[in-house]
Amino acid sequence: MDNDKVIVSPWEDISGPDILAILKNPNAQHLLTPANVGHLFQKCPIFQLDPAWNLLASQCKTSPSRLELSTNTWLRAWSPTKFANINTRTYYRYHPCIMETRNKLYHIVGFDQYNISNDHATTSTHLNENWLALPPLNYLPTKCDKVIAGSAGLLVIDGGEQPGHEPIMLWGKYQIPNEKYWMKQKTRMQSGGQSLVCVTNPLTREFILLPPILKRRVNDKIAKFVFINKERTIYNLVIVGWDYIEKNGKIEDILCVIVYSSQNQNFVHANCIEKARPIQFHECGRTGMAVINYGVYFGGLRVVTRVDDGNELEIPAIYYFNISQNRKQCLCFDFSLVNIAGRQIQAPKVVQAGGHRVFAATRYVQIPTIIWLVEVLLHNDGTPTGTYQTLPNGVMPTIFFKTLFPSEREALLPYECTNADAKIAFKVGTSNNLIVMYDMNTFEWNITEFPCQKNQQEFSMCDGCYEPNFLARP
Length: 474
Prior knowledge:
Radius of gyration: 24 Å
Number of helices: 7
Strand content: 35-45%
Distance between the termini: 51 Å
């Protein structure tokens, strides 16, 4: 007698909950909580995924143009059957990702490196083949439009202001975010004006609002996830930003590091360093950060007051914060590339790639012609050595630089850079639809366009990666 089990194809497996019956049953609507929706999509028969997704998902792209229809080149949309591994029902990671912000639909497109046949190519037969429309963020509070971190199915979005002047729509009704906290006038004076920070799963549309930060505003936030367990379900969210304090009758800038714990649902660490300024957005664009073990690394400006005339000097620097409770410290290291650049450079944009390595990007302060990438060398305990090392082919090719910055007048436009999966991506301004990428594995530079239509004219590069996961909980 043959006792061998019959292997059933995942596409033919009919075990699991009938998600279509639940979605179409008006008496079962109470079951459709974000957590249950995620569980249903993870466990239902695979052949039900696309029909169920079509019932629940909102439009993630604009309608194709006549030309796109006639040439079969319209932008593809992500679907829950686009698996990286069908047996575990896991999905690909997308980076870089671009979010449209002008028309407030918050459509996101992600670079689909898994659809490219040639490992060294970044352009296919037509533009839209290399990009994928991902589930949008059109359900979040008003003006939350900057994706400042992303991993393991979650995105962190920053924007807006609290306490606002009027209630906004939250979870289906009008209310003031964190209303109980803002009821005291003293609290409004000390901490008012800070932005909203949301952590969300765009597949299930579940989101939380982080509590307000006590006595700090932490402007121009950047962030990074640090996962506590192997399953990546418990996280610390490291947030960096700037504020100011009054000292000896003067206003001084400070840089802050705050850590939010998903386990405690509150902030568990806070520290700051004085006489420090962030990278000026209008000069350089948004910066990034790196987190290795308990070390947090980011770029900024060290402020030095001249003794003779009282004027302030701004010196490019890399800041290091240790966020462990046993070794709470903050250090500053000048970012000088005298032997590499030869003249004054801008404050560095710090990125992390290749696991436990920290890198920085910079350009000249005046009439820049190239962008450098250098490695920040570290001691065994993780603290920076204050020295920097060039990378193989670590200078952006002139032809790519001139494509991003076509003229001398445009050479100082703000630019953004972000990283994931050993790739560092650069984008200039808000309306330019070009991306330049550096691959840490091959040491190659590539350039590509991301798709946009005429009514889409403002774009923001998302920090981190977009990694769909139905089971992720904020």
